[in-house]
Amino acid sequence: xxxxxxxxxxxxxxxxxxxxxxxxxxxxxxxxxxxxxxxxxxxxxxxxxxxxxxxxxxxxxxxxxxxxxxxxxxxxxxxxxxxxxxxxxxxxxxxxxxxxxxxxxxxxxxxxxxxxxxxxxxxxxxxxxxxxxxxxxxxxxxxxxxxxxxxxxxxxxxxxxxxxxxxxxxxxxxxxxxxxxxxxxxxx
Length: 188
What we know:
Layout: E1 3-8, E2 16-17, H1 20-27, H2 33-41, E3 52-56, H3 58-61, E4 69-72, E5 75-79, H4 80-90, E6 94-101, E7 104-111, E8 123-127, E9 130-136, H5 141-144, E10 149-152, E11 156-163, H6 164-172, E12 178-181
Parallel strand pairs: 3-6
Antiparallel strand pairs: 1-11, 1-12, 2-3, 4-5, 5-7, 6-7, 8-9, 10-11
């Protein structure tokens, strides 16, 4: 099974001019404990979310095309068309928070699942005898067979991974905004 690490397009910027502090404020998370721990704990944010609005990042006000799917922090920001395409399949792996980005109805996708790493084929990286990252990351195929997008506890929750099924649907629909890297442990 082919697995890909989702990456922002090189030299791209986030679409929404929406800070983590503003995100926490909408959620009523005054001490930021929820937004800081959520990628690790997979706590649901939907019950606390209120539909909100924000501005486009300055680069998009200057004419850059708004991508269909892009990174926003540890999450993905999806256009309405990407949301309609993936909603039914992804709602089992996460939740969608609606946000109006300067007149564009978009959705923040919050992944709530981890793929299980295949430790027999995953190789940790060591420098001077200390573990510092991974040289090779492999997932257990059975654990990700029914997922489209997921996280890795071993790699860290700032990265998202996708199956071939997601990649093919993304490409068939002609969507843009993210890259698919086969080197799962690559930090760049």
